[in-house]
Amino acid sequence: MREFFITALIDMNACLILQDREGHYVCITTLPGHWTLKPGVLPGDTAIFGAGIGARLAELKAGLSKPGDRAELEIAAGDDTYFEFRCRLVEMGNHEVYMMTVVIDRTEDRRRERLLRALLREVSHRSKNLLAIIQSIASQTARYSGTLETFLSKFRGRLHALSQSQDLITDSSWRGAYFRDLLKQQVDRYVQENGDLVRVSGEDILLTPNASLHVGLALHELVVNAVSHGDFLARRRPIEVSCERIETGFGPQIRMTWVEPLGPLGDEALVAARTARFGSTVLERVVPSSVNGRAIHRLESDEVRYELTFSQDNEE
């Protein structure tokens, strides 16, 4: 059984120490590599673990008086390592009372706990940002909606676009989302049977989480406007969308371009189209300000052009 128990202790990454009532070491197994016992030196808490830890263990053990009493102590042993000391008085079959100490390496546990706390802080931070985005969208939607029905319709669409983008971000372990995936989400939802009429070129750039949410929102607005107020489906003239990295005086940036062809519009039709399409400030204010970028949004007699330029390493 000796080999069995020693193997089990090694697998548990644990060390077992047994002392008699006078504190003399009777047995010690699988001492952690962090500590060593010099040849010729009698084993003891101070001899093995040093004066500091030895004093803390002595104080801990002094508080145990009868069999069954137990106490625990966690020690940072340096080099980002942590050990838990579990001390307990036990009565053996010969009615002798011994002090049993189990030393367990908790380094990986503590590292996982720190990582989990960091992840929870990150989730909390991003959740607050997402709620702020939703609040902003609700406010802007309400400001430019004449009726409750209009507000609900627009707000639900925008909220769904955010939800889709957030799914992509989550699937990537919060790295962000690829531009073409963001575009495909909106195309599949609104023009699935005519997806060939939205052509994409340029790089498939991985956008930061913050940029992903807002670029996805911009693409939602553009697709909805095109379906609701455009004629590209009837004329079978494709929309051209591109995404590329560019160098500017502000450093490397990303530029997204949307070019939607229109049939010839007279002056009155052009004014009516601008009124219908430009009722929302999402494309011109909300999105560019949220990514610290700038936007150009023009409706001419023969096309709609939207350009969004923002920093490559943009983040909330």
From TrEMBL:
InterPro entries given in the database record: Sig_transdc_His_kinase_HWE
Domain named Signal transduction histidine kinase HWE region: residues: 122-204
Key word Repeat present: no
EC identifiers of the protein: 2.7.13.3
Keywords: ATP-binding, Kinase, Nucleotide-binding, Phosphoprotein, Transferase
Plastid listed as a keyword: no
A Pfam family reported for this protein in Swiss-Prot or TrEMBL: HWE_HK
Protein name per its UniProtKB record: histidine kinase
